[in-house]
Each structure stands twice: as C-alpha cells, then as structure tokens.
Design goal:
Blueprint: E1 15-17, E2 24-26, E3 37-38, E4 46-53, H1 65-74, E5 85-92, E6 105-113, E7 116-120, E8 125-128, E9 133-137, E10 141-145, E11 154-162
Antiparallel strand pairs: 1-2, 3-4, 4-5, 5-11, 6-9, 6-11, 7-8, 7-10
Domain Cupin type-2: 89-152
Protein name: Cupin type-2 domain-containing protein
InterPro entries: Cupin_2, OryJ/VirC-like, RmlC-like_jellyroll, RmlC_Cupin_sf
Length: 181
C-alpha cells in the first residue's frame, strides 16, 4: 500500500508539571512523534496510539500514567482497555472498508481528514465529513473511506471509554489486533 499523500505524520505533545515550580511543562519522557502500527486484516489501516490510561480515573501522580502508556506503545492494547481510556488515530486508505466490529465501550469518533461512511449492521449508514462526530455505544459497525478524489486517505480520531449495560460482548470481525483487555 502506498503511503498516504494527503495526510501528514502526527505528533503528540504530553504535558506535566515542573516539580520545582509546579508550572505546566511539556514532558520529555517520550518522543513527540507518534509511531504507526500497520493493521493487516483491517483494510490496511494505520493506527497511531495517541494516548492511553489503564485506570479510571487516570492516575497522574508522579506521572504514573506516562510509563503505563509507554508500555502500550511497545505492546499495543486491543481496541479498548476495560479499565481505562484509549485515544487513537486511524488512517484509512482510499476506498477501504473495515470489518464489521463491536466493542464494549463508548467511542467518540471524529473525522479529521476526508469523508468516512459509518455502516451499521442494520444496513443504515451516515457519511461523516471533517469535524463530524459519531458516538458508538457498543453497536456493531464498520467504517468506509468515501473521500472523493483519487488516492485520498481519510483520518479519524477515536476516544474509547469502558462501558457496561449492553451485554453483547466484543466482536472484532477479523480486525488484526488482539482482544481488548
């Protein structure tokens, strides 16, 4: 798959506090460049793990959340973390269609670049354009890049939070990532 032409590499800036002054500063514990995880069985999408927490509420004491996130960079989580949050950027190749899938989570999906069709297992669809938001509430769905023009990638930002109440379980539909923890 050719690299994306219409979207740029991303950076992630993590803030913390200067222990001496208590003023806000940028953390230097991790590179600002977000690594890309190529997802094979998911229409060749590229995932970038912008941030994770493994507890709710997040434990910010002594920057405990930063090394926890760093461990997920070397050993990526499933789609969700059942005790914390996931912020992920997904780049979708032209005309890509993800597998139909469901997670036990509330997901906020925001289109950053391009146009993306949200497909539900009922057959209903909606086209999201830049800035539009989808709220996924544990439902079975797929994503399709419908960006006009030849060779145009789409980019989405997702924030995934643990949920309870709908007991249908997780169904990854063949997405090439491990089961959620």
């Amino acid at each position: 798959m050719a690299p994306p032409k219409n979207i740029r590499p991303l950076n992630r800036f993590i803030t913390t506090h200067d222990p001496a002054t208590q003023k806000a500063i940028f953390s230097n514990q991790l590179s600002e460049e977000m690594p890309i995880q190529q997802i094979q069985d998911s229409a060749d999408a590229q995932f970038s793990l912008a941030y994770t927490t493994d507890t709710t509420p997040a434990n910010l004491a002594d920057d405990a959340d930063i090394p926890a996130y760093a461990s997920y960079l070397s050993n990526p989580p499933g789609i969700t973390i059942s005790t914390g949050s996931v912020c992920r950027i997904v780049d979708m190749p032209p005309h890509a269609l993800s597998p139909m899938h469901r997670t036990v989570s509330v997901d906020y999906g925001v289109v950053l670049e391009g146009e993306v069709e949200l497909v539900l297992d009922s057959g209903e669809t909606r086209v999201l354009k830049r800035g539009d938001v989808a709220v996924q509430r544990g439902t079975n769905h797929a994503w399709r890049n419908v960006t006009p023009g030849e060779g145009q990638w789409a980019r989405m930002l997702y924030v995934l939070l643990p949920a309870k109440g709908v007991d249908l379980g997780e169904d990854l539909g063949g997405i090439g990532v491990r089961a959620s923890t």
